[in-house]
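Tutorial, part two.
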Amino acid sequence: MDVPQYADVPHLGQVVPSLLAMLGVPGESGTLAVPEARSACVLLIDGLGWQLLSEHAADAPVLTELAKSPLRVGFPSTTAAGVAAIGTGLASGEHGMVGYTFEVPGVGVLNALRWRSHDDGSDLRGALPPREVQPLPTTFERAAAAGVDAAVVSSAQFSDTALTRATQSGARYEGVHALGDLAARTLEVLAGRSFCYAYHSELDLVGHLYGPGSTAWRMQLRQVDRLVESLVDGLPAGALLAVVADHGMVRIGEKLDLESTPELLEGVRAFGGEVRARHAYTEPGAEADVLAAWQSVLGERAWVRSRDEAIEQGWFGTSVSDRVRPRIGNVVAAARGTFGMVRELAEAAESSLLGQHGSLTEAEQLVPLVLAAG
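Running the prediction step on this input gives:
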């Protein structure tokens, strides 16, 4: 089964370096054509897929009018990887956030959003300092070093999380509480020579709970469109707004419980990833047998590759650093269609969600790139 290719579609990680290059930050690569401006903001709408926006254009007339082209988010199509792509300008093979959960050698499986052990829930901030897990200079540090005011406008609850430290160090954090102050603070930051990253999470949350395209999801999309309209209408002269997303989403159909499938457990010592994108970490010497078993059992329902094959095929970007390679499963599976690989006992909450993402399908990979200038 051939893996979908998106080589002609720009990567999410190219957006911020292109904006920083436009702002005159030395060493940044302006691979995307963006209008000249003296300040710029990336607004990330969690879970807004290109296909979903196209299917529900009537609920988002402003976004639909402005959205001219898609981006690809890379593998895995999940929030930790997308936020890190914004925060580093790189794909997951370099920044290292290779899953919602992934194994860090010598420590265990990390939940990258909560920075806790995925096995027992223990806090891993001491064992895994955020800037050791992601040690590369952030886009915010690079902007600030060039004299550009770097700010993050996002929920106050995320102000001091480990993921924020790993991916947004160097920025002034402006904690907000609702759509109103998210819009207001973003516009205030854009009044000066600045680079701003703003984040809205609730569309993704509603999609997980009720399914993408549900009535609740469409109502939330309307609120997102109003947010974008407010920002576009209020943009100061010389300010640029880029609206992007970290992934799309699919409604899960068929599920397979990994823990109830003995053939998929044999030789596997740990699991990472999520319902649509799985890492299987194998016992020594068991990789070939595990790969064969997963390919046989999952069949046409997933793309299944060894670690080396997935890297060679560019799943994690054009290069994978030696620091990151061990975090990738010995066997990696990416779901096709609406298939889900759940763990009903170990991941009860995640397994119950109607909307999921993480894989290589167009519905999950492609997101909008929206540009508006003041």
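The mean pLDDT is 97. In part three we will examine how such features are distributed along the chain.
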